[in-house]
Specification:
This protein is α+β, with helices and mostly antiparallel strands. It folds into four domains: 134 residues, PAS domain (Beta-Lactamase, 2-Layer Sandwich), CATH 3.30.450.20; 98 residues, 2-Layer Sandwich (Beta-Lactamase), CATH 3.30.450.20; 89 residues; 152 residues, Heat Shock Protein 90, CATH 3.30.565. Helix content is 50%, strand content 24%. The chain has 13 helices and 17 strands. Strand 14 and strand 15 form a beta hairpin. Helix 11 packs antiparallel against helix 13.
């Protein structure tokens, strides 16, 4: 039985009570530590005397960027956590005065040097008889940035709103009172900011406009470019386009209205319409006069153009005829003067070569002295050289005559183009077989024309020989294409090779007589000139050449049938 006067019994009781208290204390201390560590709010405990950190929770470590062993046992000045000395002094002043702090805005520095803004609350608590500061810090850096961005955005909106040349207002939906009115609104309605803008103002000429706009806002949430008219304070009626939209300002439903004064624009449009009407009347009147005069002028122009065209054709034909006549006279004179002596020289050289050859082949050659034999050999070689050069001169002379020959002597006849083209290419086979060139033709099998077959042959022959001489090297391969077609009673021939092509300065002179870039290789400069004369004079057609270095050459011939 318990006896309160028994000292031993009393001691046992006190010991049991002490154990219970220690057990309860440990229980609550463990719960405090868990709550301290796990709370999402940053908390630290530091000594008042020297600012040494005794404990920090995980949230505090997260917002500062430190590890626990980098902080515990060190002071706030050791880790330089204060971004500025004023924040620290502010906290100390408050603590010395009141012993507590609530919601102090401070700047602190993270481990990486980044400056953050925090909201600090603190109280004094005693740990083992040591006064300490329990500080709670909320990181409000993002909130501060958001508030600054919002203030900047509101400032920009205010500047844009007031500076807008278009009238703008913001009214509360509930009672219609104005929250904002820009300067353009005062200006177009004739009020001044000093005298204010009546909230019950109804300047609209259109009856029930306010109710109509309100209805559309409720149905759609916006109104766009509603055309109406309004009266200024001085009685002047003006025209406007009204747009409106439901918006929310600080949680309150409002209406943003935009009033675009289009009076000057409408007046300009009306003036333009009147000017256009007047102009149309004038144009109509003048048009009738001009049409009559134009018809008469067109008839005169047609006659004049026909006369000019005929004159140009006559002039061109006259110039060409004179050039060809002059060239014909020159060639005829040269042929007359040169043909006879060349003919005599050819005959003599041939006779000399023949008798020399006969003598050297006879049986009497052995009885002739050695010196005479050598003379006969030299004579035979010299006569051969003379004869070859005279024959070349004769060929050139025939080419000269061909330039001025009267082509009208050839008679037109009907012939199959593709069949005749094959015959021409067959005649060129001895020249072509020594090359690596391929000729591709494209022509309708049934195409017949009534023209000059000789002229046709000369054109193809000169083109092919020109390609062999100028477009390809001796061992080059390539393709020559010949396309012939009939369109609108005209024959079109396209001759193309994929050879060397030519420079612009050469292209501009290819039809000039005696112009050649290969005179050392036997070129006379007459082949393409002969083609040009045949096409333009005999066939009454046109010829065009297209070429670039390395891109081959294309000739396009067109003439009427």
């Amino acid at each position: 039985m318990y006896n309160e006067n028994d000292p031993v019994q009393a001691t046992k009781t006190e010991m049991l009570d002490s154990q219970h208290m220690e057990s309860a204390l440990r229980f609550y201390e463990e719960r405090f530590v868990k709550a301290f560590r796990c709370t999402p709010t940053a908390i630290n405990i530091a000594r008042v005397s020297d600012g040494t950190y005794l404990e920090v929770n995980d949230a505090w470590l997260e917002i500062t960027g430190y590890e626990r062993d980098e902080v515990i046992g060190r002071t706030d000045q050791d880790i330089q956590i204060w971004a500025d000395a004023e924040s620290r002094r502010k906290l100390l002043r408050v603590f010395l005065k009141t012993g507590t702090a609530r919601s102090l805005e401070i700047k602190f520095r993270r481990k990486n040097g980044e400056i953050k803004t925090g909201l600090l609350s603190a109280d004094i608590l005693t740990m083992g008889e040591e006064p300490c500061i329990l500080a709670v810090v909320n990181d409000i850096t993002e909130r501060i940035r958001a508030e600054e961005a919002l203030r900047s955005s509101e400032q920009l909106f205010s500047i844009a709103f007031n500076a807008s040349p278009v009238a703008m207002t913001i009214r509360r939906w509930a009672d219609g009172s104005f929250l904002r009115i820009n300067e353009s609104t005062y200006r177009i309605f004739g009020y001044s900011p000093e005298e204010g803008f009546p909230s019950d103002l109804n300047p609209w000429q259109e009856a029930g406009l306010a109710s109509q706009i309100e209805k559309q806002l409720l149905e759609k949430g916006f109104v766009y470019d509603h055309e109406t008219s309004f009266f200024r304070t001085d009685g002047e009626m003006r025209h406007a386009l009204i747009s409106a939209k439901l918006i929310e300002v600080n949680g309150e439903n409002c209406v943003l209205s935009i009033i675009n004064d289009v009076t000057d624009k409408k007046r300009a449009e009306e003036a333009l319409r009147e000017a256009n009407d007047e102009l149309e009347d004038r144009v109509q009147s003048r048009t009738e006069d001009l049409m009559a005069a134009n018809q008469e002028l067109q008839a005169m122009n047609q006659e004049l153009f026909a006369a000019i065209e005929q004159l140009q054709i006559t002039q061109q034909q006259s110039v060409l005829s004179e050039k060809m006549a002059s060239l014909g006279n020159l060639v005829a004179g040269v042929a007359h003067e040169v043909s006879t002596p060349i003919g005599v020289a050819v005959t003599t050289a041939s006779h000399l070569k023949q008798i020399t050859t006969d003598l050297t082949k006879s049986g009497r050659i052995d009885s002739i002295p050695q010196l005479v034999q050598e003379y006969l050999e030299d004579c035979s070689e010299a006569s051969h050289i003379i004869l070859k050069n005279l024959e070349r001169a004769a060929v050139l002379l025939r080419s000269f005559k061909q330039v001025s020959v009267d082509q009208s002597a050839e008679v037109k006849r009907i012939f199959h183009v593709k069949e005749y083209l094959g015959e021409i290419l067959l005649s060129l086979h001895p020249k072509l077989k020594r090359t690596r060139l391929q000729i591709v033709t494209n022509c309708d099998d049934n195409l017949q024309i009534n023209s000059f077959p000789g002229a046709f042959a000369q054109i193809i022959t000169n083109f092919v020989m020109n390609s062999l001489l100028h477009a390809y090297d001796a061992d080059s391969s390539g393709t020559i294409s010949i396309d012939i077609m009939e369109t609108d009673n005209r024959l079109e021939m396209q001759y193309a090779d994929d050879g060397k092509g030519m420079e612009a300065e050469v292209l501009n002179r290819i039809f000039d007589p005696f112009f050649t870039t290969r005179r050392a290789s036997g070129g006379t400069g007459l082949g393409l000139h002969i083609v040009y004369n045949i096409v333009t004079l005999q066939l009454a057609g046109s010829i065009e050449c297209q070429s670039e270095p390395g891109q081959g050459t294309r000739f396009i011939i067109r003439f009427p049938l």
